[in-house]
């Protein structure tokens, strides 16, 4: 019963962490407390250069040590390297004596000699990994190892979901500021138009456009000339705000991700490109369907589409240039017209509509 309560508490913290560094730190503090560890950290590691491993968030690790780690000690961290090469598997370095090279056997010199460590990694893009490390100065018993492994296994899906939302939140806010206007959706691609990062809601909207084609993990344009223009701009690392396609109902913006400001150090797609899509307001097919099928007013439809991307009333008000009270009324009327009784039902119905 206590195990279930601990898990739920950690999951609740993670659900609220995206966009809030203090809550991420709170998650690590609570995790180290529950598992009787002395320190915890979330790291992002470049799989092609382990010297580029960086702290994302940490608990009970002094700033001086974090700087030393990022400057040189990361190259000696054989344990972190090992878990990053074996994602989604939970390891304790006490059990890896024969697998880890180097005199430290994976026990990186750390504050207060916290040489006993647990770790697990998640893939983060094609060339990066996100690792969760926990350490202390006394060995883990067999019972403790079982308990820690079980809790981390239960927490891992929630952690992966929270990190995906963290990326989405950071990119969304920076992209809105960069474009200076709204957008209907975006994806992140490499120079070969392979999709590096996408949001299911945005992908459902983008895939309905007459001018694009998304097959598995690759993006393409139905007009070869437009696709070649995109590829040429990417090769030259150029930004463009006015790539129109043959359907003439939307505008595509190409933005090198490195052009965005204030991204976290861990951003794993920094060499990629954002393709954002913005419908002309009078030719947005999702908006037209909402107005036609459910008799929504244009203002109600606009708020509903914003709600589908982010259900925060404050954010909808800010992005649609309306008061929060007006937004609440529009959402209330939309729920009545769409015959739903909760915001969760509304979100589900809107996503279904967008995928038609």
TrEMBL record:
It holds the Pfam family GerE. It comes from the Bacteria. Coiled coil: none annotated. InterPro entries: Sig_transdc_resp-reg_C-effctor (IPR016032), Tscrpt_reg_LuxR_C (IPR000792), WH-like_DNA-bd_sf (IPR036388). Residues 293-350 form the HTH luxR-type domain. Transmembrane segments: none annotated. This is LuxR C-terminal-related transcriptional regulator. It comes from Methylomonas subterranea.
């Amino acid at each position: 019963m206590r195990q279930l309560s601990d898990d739920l508490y950690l999951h609740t913290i993670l659900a609220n962490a995206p966009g809030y560094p203090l809550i991420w730190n709170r998650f690590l503090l609570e995790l180290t407390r529950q598992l009787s560890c002395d320190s915890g950290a979330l790291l992002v590691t470049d799989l092609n250069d382990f010297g580029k491993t960086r702290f994302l968030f940490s608990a009970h690790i002094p700033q001086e040590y974090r700087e030393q780690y990022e400057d040189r000690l990361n190259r000696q961290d054989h344990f972190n390297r090992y878990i990053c090469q074996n994602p989604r598997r939970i390891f304790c370095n006490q059990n890896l004596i024969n697998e880890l090279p180097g005199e430290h056997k994976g026990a990186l010199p750390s504050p207060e000699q916290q040489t006993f460590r647990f770790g697990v990694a998640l893939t983060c893009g094609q060339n990066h990994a996100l690792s969760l490390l926990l350490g202390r100065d006394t060995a883990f018993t067999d019972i403790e190892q079982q308990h820690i492994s079980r809790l981390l296994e239960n927490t891992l899906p929630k952690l992966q979901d929270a990190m995906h939302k963290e990326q989405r939140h950071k990119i969304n806010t920076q992209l809105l500021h960069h474009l200076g206007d709204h957008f209907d959706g975006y994806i992140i691609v490499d120079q070969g138009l392979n999709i590096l990062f996408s949001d299911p809601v945005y992908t459902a909207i983008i895939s309905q456009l007459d001018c694009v084609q998304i097959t598995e993990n690759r993006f393409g344009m139905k007009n070869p000339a437009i696709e070649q223009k995109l590829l040429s701009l990417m090769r030259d690392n150029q930004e463009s705000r006015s790539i129109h396609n043959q359907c003439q109902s939307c505008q595509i913006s190409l933005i090198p991700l490195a052009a965005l400001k204030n991204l976290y150090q861990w951003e794993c797609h920094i060499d990629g490109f954002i393709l954002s899509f913005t419908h002309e307001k009078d030719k947005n097919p999702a908006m037209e369907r909402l107005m036609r099928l459910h008799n929504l007013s244009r203002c109600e439809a606009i708020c509903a589409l914003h709600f589908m991307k982010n259900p925060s009333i404050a954010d909808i008000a800010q992005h649609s240039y309306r008061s929060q009270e007006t937004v609440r009324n529009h959402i209330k009327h939309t729920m009545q017209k769409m015959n739903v009784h909760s915001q969760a039902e509304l979100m589900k119905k809107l996503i279904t509509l967008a995928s038609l």
